[in-house]
Amino acid sequence: MPTPLIAGNWKMNGSRALAEEFGRAFRDASLPEGVAVALMVPFPCLEAAGRAFEGGPLALGAQTLSQHPSGAFTGEVSGEMLRECGARMVLVGHSERRSLFGEDDAAVLARVQAALDAGLTPVLCLGETLEERDAGRTEAVVLGQLEAVFDGLDAAQRGQLVLAYEPVWAIGTGRTATPEQAQAVHGAIRTCLARYDAGLAAAMQVLYGGSMKADNAAELLVQPDIDGGLVGGASLKIDEFLAICQSAG
Ligand code: PGA
Fold first, then answer.
1. Within 10 Å of residue 232's Cβ, how many Cβ atoms?
2. Is there an atom of ligand 1 within 6 Å of 232 CB?
3. DSSP code of residue 44
């Protein structure tokens, strides 16, 4: 069984002060043994969050990175810069990056490679739109996004990723996938991973994301192929996020 991981994604929300509050609250909290927790904060909060999380259970992550290591790319941030700020993981291919910022599968693969080159753990996000689900294309879309990245990596690289299945229609909508819907896709992801390597399939953390809250986390996290959560809105409230972390134990 992979270690459960609950990762918060603040998106363009939060502040350095909120990161400091989270750092204090989590240092004092008793979390279930063996549950890993992380927060993906906006770039300007990284350093303050890194200091605030020191000595506590929260791992630090960012929400995107450039595919380039350095150069004339005004406004971009490299993986190495994120590491220097204390980040250990980074989201790649979040549906908001894909739909609002035009990141296609090739761009997602390039960013995964850039993250690995910088020594960051890429958390690769996958998910179908409602239109794709209604057309019966959920597995084709999700596994297609997965293969577009995994086919471009070698075996050692594949083993360093974390995956997050996030149905686009469940993100920020309050409409969570049912545990059965989520498990069905997670099971398909696991089967697809086993085609690369059985050990990889058994060890890979596959998170669920999309309107995960304190009151629905337990029934999702108990599913056999769901190894944790990627939590957006509910990761901005300390009590709510802590309660989700508690239910992963
Ligand atoms: P949500 O966002 O929990 O607010 O639906 C999840 C995500 O986008 O990672």
1. 22
2. yes
3. G
Active-site option among 96, 166, 186, 240: 166
Domain ranges in the chain?
A: 5-247
CA distance 225 to 208: 10
List of residues 6+ apart from 209 with CB closer than 8 A: 9, 125, 127, 164, 165, 166, 170, 171, 229, 230, 231, 232
**pLDDT on residue 20:** 98
Q: Can you give 159-225 as a three-state secondary structure string?
A: CCCEEEECCHHHCCCCCCCCHHHHHHHHHHHHHHHHHHCHHHHHHCCEEEECCCCCCCHHHHHCCCC
The pLDDT assigned to 165 comes to 98
pTM: 0.97
Substitution site in 9, 12, 123 for ligand 1 pocket (most atoms within 8 Å of beta carbon): 9
Assign a CATH topology to domain 5-247: TIM Barrel (3.20.20)
Alpha-carbon dihedral 182, 185, 190, 194, rounded to 10 degrees: 170
Indicate the pLDDT class of residue 147, thresholds 50, 70 and 90.
Answer: very high
Q: Which of 94, 103, 128, 240 is catalytic?
A: 94
Cα atoms found within 13 Å of the Cα of residue 22, Cβ hemisphere only: 32
